[in-house]
Design goal:
alpha+beta; 10 strands
Amino acid sequence: MEKHLFSFFLFILISINANSQVLISLLLGDKLNSDKIEFGIDGGFNYSTLHGIESGSYASDLFLGFYFDFKQRNPNWILHTGVQVKSSVGADEVPYNYIENEEISAILEGTKYRKEISYFYVPFTVKYRFLTLFNVEAGVQLGLMHGATDTYKYKPPEGGKLTYELDAKHQVKKLDAGYLVGIGSKLSKENKSMQCGIKYYRGFVDIDAQNITSGTYNSSIYLYCSIPIGAKKAEKSAAKNKLP
């Protein structure tokens, strides 16, 4: 148990750097799996928007992270957590926002833009498994913002394309939180196997740091697949250690 706790905290520290994703899975995959813990890679597509901003449409992006499933005495109940080390939310086709640079503002005024906010998201949910393969889950998700960008794309009258990226971190609060619900299914009856599903996240924290709007809240739809890492190796190692 102590080894698992040490590996868990080591995972949290290293996963702050997204470039270490492959390294973690290779080095710690089998160490973090046991008969009570399932560890793996969690990723897929994220469709997000911002409630409170008029005319913003959904923005799509990829997300990637790691997960832990902690099995309870009743095998139908599971505690789920992890870290999304690559996760962006926001909205597309957002109406023009004021830009302090007057020359650029005069050019881009009236142009819609894409707002992209990068978070480290950590979910805490309870899963209930039924009919062997299926599960539903509900809980909360906490986020730490580490980047935000507004991207304007403008087509000058003389032709060509102009892209202007504005650092928007000062516009967004550092912390986000909300509720998370989902439904998924394993792809086989094996104890630890790949599963896919859909989740919905709705923030209840106003992320607007400048109070420009009456309230701006993150909302995301996740289409995900979860793949256990090192599970079979861990099972073989456990079986070997049990031999007389």
